[in-house]
């Protein structure tokens, strides 16, 4: 049997669930922790989703708003009735929205999932990349003289 080390954890979890702070089935979706940085010609965004199956992750983009939704489901048990001894990991739906600027190429976003981390690579649009502008030589105006 597993021992519970904090006798007040269940009370805290119950209070958080009632107040809507955990992302459980009775509250609004909890936020997903993330890191974001620019790496050369792309933005990289990493979301922590430990214990989430790749098929339980949805990525949607609409009008430059990227939505990440994930659901951590209970561990599937055998056919026997299971009595949970300790349940500290939050279950349910988690979500996060990113507002992408016009400088991003939303048609070519790449997503990878490894070791509980969802990594998005969002390229910078060609029109937003720095470029040189060629300066044309002005041609002197020619005026014809009436004779």
UniProtKB/TrEMBL annotation:
Signal peptide: none annotated. It comes from the Bacteria. SUPFAM superfamilies: HSP20-like chaperones. Transmembrane segments: none annotated. Residues 25-138 form the SHSP domain. Pfam families: HSP20. Coiled coil: none annotated. Belongs to the small heat shock protein (HSP20) family. This is HSP20 family protein. It comes from Amycolatopsis marina.
């Amino acid at each position: 049997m597993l021992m519970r080390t904090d006798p007040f954890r269940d009370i805290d979890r119950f209070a958080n669930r009632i107040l809507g702070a955990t992302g459980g089935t009775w509250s609004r979706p909890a936020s997903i922790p993330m890191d974001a940085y620019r790496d050369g010609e792309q933005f990289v965004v990493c979301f922590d989703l430990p214990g989430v199956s790749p098929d339980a992750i949805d990525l949607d983009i609409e009008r430059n708003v990227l939505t990440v939704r994930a659901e951590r489901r209970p561990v599937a048990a055998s056919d026997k009735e299971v009595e949970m001894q300790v349940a500290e990991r939050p279950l349910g739906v988690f979500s996060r929205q990113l507002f992408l600027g016009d400088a991003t190429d939303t048609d070519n976003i790449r997503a990878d999932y490894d070791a509980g981390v969802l990594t998005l690579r969002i390229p910078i649009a060609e029109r937003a990349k720095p470029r040189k502008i060629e300066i044309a030589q002005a041609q002197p105006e020619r005026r014809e003289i009436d004779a």
